[in-house]
Design a protein that fits this description.
400 residues, alpha/beta, Rossmann fold, Dihydrodipicolinate Reductase, domain 2, 9-stranded mixed β-sheet, 7-stranded parallel β-sheet, 14 helices, binds NADPH dihydro-nicotinamide-adenine-dinucleotide phosphate
Length: 400
C-alpha cells in the first residue's frame, strides 16, 4: 500500500491513473498533479466512486522546482511518477531529491532547444540518488521500458549471450485523420524528423531520417513498412546487454503520415527555431501542435492494433538461437477499458507497474537505473496481469 504522485495528466498520465485505481492494493492514494488543474479534476470526477484508491488533485508547474518540491513535501508520496514531458525530467528529479522520494519516468531528458535525447544528463544523478538512498527508475514505458524488460528476460531465460536486437514498433491503428500523432505531437515529430541511428560493433552509425526502410510481416497485423529511427533504449541496452553486437529500432509509418510530414518539414513547420510573427516570437513546431488533434482525444476514433516487441539473435549452449517477444494491443479494447487509445495504454500500464515495483521494494536500490538492470520476472508477470500480455515466438521472420 502506498501513495503516489503522478505529474502530468495527458494521454499517458490518464491511463496510469486509471491503472493505479484498478490496483488499489498497491496504490492506496494517488495525487494527480499537472499544469492544467481542470484535466486532473475531470479525471478524479470520472474515477472516484469506482475505486478504493483515494484520489486528490493539485495544480503544479513542474518547471518550478521549488514549487514542486513544496508540493511533494506537503503531500508526502512514496514516489513521483513523471508523465509530463521529457523537458521536465531533471527538474522533477531535483525535486524528488530535495523532498526525499523515489522517481520514475517513461522518456529520457531532452533539452527544449535541441532535439537530442540522451541518458547522460540523467545518469549524472547516480551518485546523488545513491547517497540519498533513493531509486530513480528511467524509461518505464513500452519503448523504452517493456522492450528493456523483454531484453533482460530473454537473456535470463533463453540465451547465454545476445548478439543482435531488433526492436519493432508497429502501430496499425487508424484514427481517421489524414495526419495526427498518437502521443505528444511536439515530442513525436522531434523524434521522427531527427537523423536515425543504430548501435554496431561498439559505436553509433548515423543515418538520414527515414533512410532505412524494411517491410515486416507482423503477427496479428500483417505486412507493414517500417523505418529505422534513433531510440533511447538503444543507448542503455548497448551498455547493459553483454556481448551485444548490434541494436536497431524500427517504427511503422503510413504513406499518408510520411507525405504530410515531408510537406510540413519542407515549409518549415517542424522547426524548433523561433520565428517572429506579427511582433511575437513563436516556435513553428509548437504552433503546429496547437493545430493538430490532441492525442488524448483519439481514443474513440482509433481502430486496429499495435504490435511492439524485440527480435533477439544470440547463443545458447554454443548454438545460434533466435527469439521474438512481443505484445499486441487493440485500440478499441483500450478505449473501452480506460478511455484511451493503445499508444497511451501501452505506456501508462508499464509506468504503473514500474512505480508499483519501486514502491513495494521489489525494484528498489539506491541510484539511477534503466529497467533492464532489474530482475525482469516480476515485471513480466505484472504485464500479463495488468493488460499487456506478451507472446513468444521461437521461429520468427528476421529483419535483413
Ligand atoms: P501529453 O502532452 O498528452 O501530456 C503531458 C501532460 O504533462 C499534460 O497534462 C501537460 O499539461 C503536462 N505538463 C506539461 N508540462 C508540464 C509542466 N511544466 N508542469 C506540469 N505538467 C506539465 O503527453 P503524453 O501523455 O502523450 O506523453 C507523456 C510522456 O510520456 C512524455 O514524456 C512522452 O515522451 C512519454 N511517452 C513515452 C512512451 C514510451 O513508450 N516510453 C510512449 C509515449 C509517450 P497540460 O495539460 O497543461 O498541457
Amino acid at each position: 500500500m502506498g501513495k503516489i504522485m503522478i505529474v502530468g495528466c495527458g494521454g499517458v498520465g490518464s491511463v496510469a491513473v486509471h491503472k493505479c485505481c484498478q490496483n488499489s492494493d498497491a496504490f492506496s492514494e494517488v495525487v494527480i498533479a499537472s499544469r492544467t488543474l481542470s484535466k486532473c479534476d475531470a479525471l478524479k470526477e470520472k474515477l472516484q466512486g469506482t475505486t478504493k484508491t483515494k484520489i486528490t488533485t493539485a495544480q503544479v508547474d513542474a518547471d518550478d522546482t521549488a514549487v514542486l518540491t513544496e508540493l511533494i513535501r506537503k503531500e508526502k508520496p512514496d514516489a513521483v511518477l513523471n508523465l509530463a514531458l521529457p523537458y521536465q525530467d531533471l527538474l522533477i528529479m531535483e525535486a524528488c531529491l530535495a523532498a526525499g522520494v523515489h522517481y520514475i519516468d517513461t522518456a529520457n531528458y531532452e533539452p527544449e532547444d535541441t532535439a537530442k535525447f540522451e541518458y547522460k544528463w540523467q545518469w549524472e544523478y547516480r551518485e546523488r540518488f545513491e547517497k540519498a538512498g533513493l531509486t530513480a527508475l528511467l524509461g518505464s514505458g513500452f519503448d523504452p521500458g517493456v522492450t528493456g524488460v523483454f531484453s533482460a528476460y530473454a537473456l535470463k531465460h533463453y540465451f547465454d549471450e545476445i548478439n543482435y536486437i531488433d526492436i519493432l514498433d508497429c502501430n496499425a491503428g487508424d484514427n481517421g485523420y489524414p495526419f495526427a500523432t498518437n502521443f505528444n505531437p511536439e515530442i513525436n515529430i522531434r523524434e521522427v524528423s531527427a537523423n536515425g541511428s543504430y548501435w554496431e560493433d561498439g559505436h553509433w552509425v548515423e543515418t538520414k531520417p527515414m533512410e532505412i526502410k524494411r517491410t515486416y510481416n507482423f503477427p496479428e497485423i500483417g505486412k507493414r513498412d517500417m523505418y529505422l529511427l534513433h531510440h533511447e533504449e538503444i543507448e542503455s541496452l548497448a551498455l547493459n546487454i553483454p556481448g551485444i553486437k548490434r541494436i536497431r529500432f524500427f517504427m511503422t509509418f503510413s504513406e499518408s503520415y510520411l507525405t504530410h510530414l515531408k510537406c510540413l518539414e519542407n515549409v518549415g513547420m517542424t522547426s524548433i527555431e523561433p520565428v517572429t510573427y506579427k511582433g511575437q516570437e513563436i516556435i513553428p513546431l509548437q504552433f503546429l501542435k496547437t493545430l493538430l488533434p490532441d492525442p488524448a482525444s483519439l481514443g474513440p476514433r482509433t481502430k486496429g492494433k499495435t504490435n511492439i516487441g524485440c527480435i533477439f539473435i544470440g547463443k545458447k549452449d554454443g548454438k545460434e538461437k533466435k527469439l521474438y517477444i512481443y505484445n499486441t494491443c487493440d485500440h478499441q479494447e483500450c478505449y473501452k477499458e480506460v478511455g484511451s487509445q493503445a499508444v497511451a495504454y501501452t505506456t501508462g500500464v508499464p509506468a504503473m507497474i514500474g512505480a508499483m515495483l519501486v514502491m513495494n521494494g521489489t525494484w528498489r536500490k539506491p541510484g539511477v537505473f534503466n529497467v533492464e538492470e532489474f530482475d525482469p520476472d516480476p515485471f513480466m508477470d505484472a504485464l500479463n496481469k495488468w493488460g499487456l500480455p506478451w507472446k513468444i515466438s521461437e521461429n520468427p521472420d528476421l529483419v535483413d
